[in-house]
Amino acid sequence: MSIAIFASGNGSNFEAIVRYSREQNWTTSVSLLVVDREDAGAIERAKRLEVPYYVVSPKHFPSKLEYEEALLELMEKHGVEWIVLAGYLRIVGDTLLEPFEGKMVNIHPSLLPSFPGLHAVEQAWGYGVKVTGVTVHFVDAGLDSGQIIAQRAVEVDEMDTIDMLTNKIHEVEHQVYPETIWKVVTGEVAYSPMIIVVSG
Length: 200
Ligand code: GRF
Hints:
Number of domains: 1
InterPro entries: Formyl_transf_N, Formyl_transf_N_sf, GART, GART_AS
Strand content: 15-25%
CATH topology: Rossmann fold
Binding site for N(1)-(5-phospho-beta-D-ribosyl)glycinamide: 11-13
Protein name: Phosphoribosylglycinamide formyltransferase
Strand order of the largest sheet: 3-2-1-4-5-6-7
Catalytic activity: N(1)-(5-phospho-beta-D-ribosyl)glycinamide + (6R)-10-formyltetrahydrofolate = N(2)-formyl-N(1)-(5-phospho-beta-D-ribosyl)glycinamide + (6S)-5,6,7,8-tetrahydrofolate + H(+)
Radius of gyration: 17 Å
CATH superfamily: Formyl transferase, N-terminal domain
Structural class: alpha/beta
CATH class: Alpha Beta
Bound molecules: 5-O-phosphono-beta-D-ribofuranosylamine
Number of strands: 7
Function: Catalyzes the transfer of a formyl group from 10-formyltetrahydrofolate to 5-phospho-ribosyl-glycinamide (GAR), producing 5-phospho-ribosyl-N-formylglycinamide (FGAR) and tetrahydrofolate.
């Protein structure tokens, strides 16, 4: 059994997870990185860390269905039990999601349900919030809407610039994501999606 990490960009969370998993001697290890772009910075990190990586670009498939079928095949080939999204800039479709329901997690740079979607740090900054943070959640069919597993607050100081805030959020992500992944993988945190009923 193993973990696959999916990324589209820089890959700093990917690296933090791999390093932590090695320090802590995880019995379920990160066996591969999947990126959807040839220019993802995560590739260089995978080479350095000697983690096998695959570039699977949706551009090379006629449809999202076929793209995700190829990903699923890759997961089966590597005995992947858990998918960790770390800056993977795509909405996961049913083809991949259904077999991994409750086995796929994501990290988002805000305190969800505030500021879902792209540019969450910029959205929070633009809104003038005084506290933001990071959220780790199970993935469902919505946009950053799955069951919340862990959150950590980050204060916005008066002297902060948006770059400083972004860096603070990344630092917190690099701590909270690896720790939370291990809690999920070991069953300390269970998947129990709720139906939220808003009335009134
Ligand atoms: C992180 O801020 C994460 O919360 C968001 O995408 C960013 C990825 O950063 N989902 P990196 O590629 O891991 O450096």
